[in-house]
Design brief:
heterodimer, A: alpha/beta, three-stranded antiparallel β-sheet, B: about 100 residues, four-stranded antiparallel β-sheet, two-stranded antiparallel ribbon, 1 helix, 9 strands, about 20% helix, globular
């Protein structure tokens, strides 16, 4: 969903209560095969993947407030037959059929117009301009290197962009009309369009192979996104402009920015906690756009490195030799007895780490957010269900670079159910829940590191 | 099958929440601004006091330029304070022609 943070009815402008507390610097140097910690940090790097040369300079914690799943976030589905949660993504793989996609040429017939273009309203040229914007926005994602979505390396990953004249071509609020074609609709009604909501993506996911929904082809794997349809607000409470028309439509939202965000959901990404990421849940103000416009030399310019890392995590290119590094570790409370009151999340399994921490890697040279993740659990495929041990994994990261790690443990007042679907999906499997999401100890007392 | 909409609030059976609702064109009530109109109610384990946190207040963004996590919205307010705020806002709204 993309929302307008500047036009909503909820109370706003409340004072911030967040106070950053720096817990001291822990410098530990990664050698080729291990990480040596010179002080006892709250974050324990336990293993290392790939060949990243890591210098973790500092950890910045905030203990006051309520963190949530941030950074690039994947959603998970627990197999109907049991087992570990599987990341949700499209069936984009070598040998897989191209991603089916289309858009509905049905536009709201209201005055003033909802979709603003340079071309005159109601003309074929307007449809061409909208379609060009859609194509350009898809190219934002398909230009990301090191992925199976990349158009240069895998030109057949995405199918041709089709057109349909049907007004209600997207899956609807009743979750019917599932056709397996990822569709963009500009004129479909939905009860989801309340104040402040500009656009959203409805995602249908299989939790078993060979499942069929509507007219969509059978699923191939657990976690496969069967259908992901995008709806833009169509009631006249918001207008959207193509990049060419935005300059003369200061009250309109940038169609490209919003669509780039929603396409991230189509590919399987949830919301990011990184402010400059395209997957950040709030839209840029009217008349503006996120980051940079795509260019011929850099079609993916609007994305942040966090967005790119998320796509690489979902669709890794086996031929990629650059983005192959991972940083992993665990977020643990300073006082392990703080976890003693947590009940077992499954038979014999207790909470042994901070669940729901967001961990962010900042490129030490450029200062940009290279990758970020939401962590707190692991799952051994040979021995499910998930264990809530505070584990996280950052990446894929470019090898041969240094990163500063920021982490915010999930301590405080929010229950896991408040968090993104990434948390909700870890234990959900229909009637047969393999585990119970851990509750949060509100008596948790933050401590400064040694 | 799983169906979800990223950003839409999810609820558990028995969960306490205050929701700001509005009618939609479809003739049903929906949550205003999704996470912005959703306030989760918790009981403070130490004091027993009921407290409210707005879903979007629970969202902490990482600001790359400041190298810090930041959040906006209502977070961990006493429930009585939230109710007083709502009543005050409603009263103010009624007075405004």
């Amino acid at each position: 969903m993309k929302k307008n943070r500047f036009a909503n009815c909820a109370p706003q402008g409340m004072p911030l209560h967040a106070i950053a507390k720096r817990l001291g610097d822990w410098r530990f140097v990664a050698r080729r095969s291990s990480v040596t910690m010179r002080h006892a940090p709250l974050v324990h790097a336990t293993r290392r993947w790939g060949t990243v040369f890591i210098t973790i300079c500092a950890f910045l914690f905030q203990f006051i407030g309520t963190p949530r799943a941030g950074a690039y976030v994947r959603d998970f589905t627990v197999p109907a037959a049991g087992g570990c949660p599987q990341p949700q993504h499209q069936n984009i793989a070598i040998g897989a059929p191209p991603l089916a996609r289309q858009w509905s040429t049905s536009l709201p017939n209201i005055n003033p117009s909802t979709i603003l273009t340079v071309a005159p309203q109601g003309t074929a040229a307007q449809l061409d301009e909208i379609e060009a914007t859609i194509q350009q926005t898809y190219a934002i994602w398909s230009d990301v290197s090191g992925t199976l979505v990349n158009a240069n390396s895998y030109p057949n990953a995405l199918g041709p962009l089709g057109r349909t004249s049907a007004q209600n071509a997207c899956s609807n609020d009743l979750q019917t009309n599932i056709d397996g074609v990822n569709t963009i609709c500009f004129n479909q009604n939905s009860a989801a369009f309340t104040t402040g909501v500009l656009s959203f993506t409805r995602v249908i996911v299989a939790n078993a192979p060979a499942q069929t929904f509507g007219s969509a082809p059978p699923s191939v794997f657990v976690g496969q996104i069967i259908d992901a349809d995008i709806c833009f607000r169509n009631d006249g409470h918001a207008t959207f402009a193509t990049p060419g028309a935005l300059a003369t439509a200061p009250g309109a939202y940038d169609l490209e920015s919003l669509l780039a965000h929603e396409l991230g959901h189509v590919f399987g990404l949830d919301h990011s906690g990184v402010w400059r990421a395209i997957m950040f849940p709030f839209a840029p103000p009217p008349g503006t756009f996120f980051g940079d416009r795509p260019t011929v030399s850099a079609p993916d310019a609007p994305l942040s490195d966090d967005d790119r890392a998320g796509l690489r995590m979902l669709y890794p290119d086996p031929a990629d030799t650059t983005d192959t590094g991972f940083i992993s570790g665990r977020i643990l409370p300073a006082n392990p007895f703080a976890l003693a009151d947590f009940p077992a999340t499954s038979l014999g399994e207790y909470v042994t780490g901070i669940f729901g921490a967001q961990v962010i890697a900042v490129d030490a040279a450029t200062g940009s957010v290279a990758a970020a993740t939401f962590g707190g659990w692991t799952c051994d495929a040979a021995n499910p269900p998930p264990r809530f041990d505070g584990s996280y994994t950052l990446g894929p990261l470019s090898v041969g670079r240094s990163y500063v790690i920021y982490a915010e443990p999930f301590v405080g007042l929010v229950q896991p159910a408040d968090m993104a679907g990434a948390a909700a999906g870890v234990c959900s499997a229909g009637a047969l829940a393999p585990c119970t999401l851990p509750a949060i100890n509100t008596n948790f007392a933050p401590r400064l590191g040694p | 099958m799983t169906s979800y909409v990223p950003g839409a609030p999810r609820f558990r059976p028995g969960e306490n929440a205050i929701l700001f609702l509005e009618p939609t064109r479809a003739g049903v009530l929906s949550i205003t601004g999704w996470g912005e109109g959703t306030f989760r109610i918790r009981r403070d384990a130490r004091t027993g006091e009921m407290r409210a946190t707005q879903d979007t207040g629970a969202t902490r963004g990482f600001d790359p330029s400041a190298r810090a996590f930041r959040a906006t919205g209502i977070r961990n307010w006493p429930l009585a304070k939230l109710k007083a705020r709502v009543i005050a806002a409603e009263t103010s709204e009624r007075r405004t022609p």
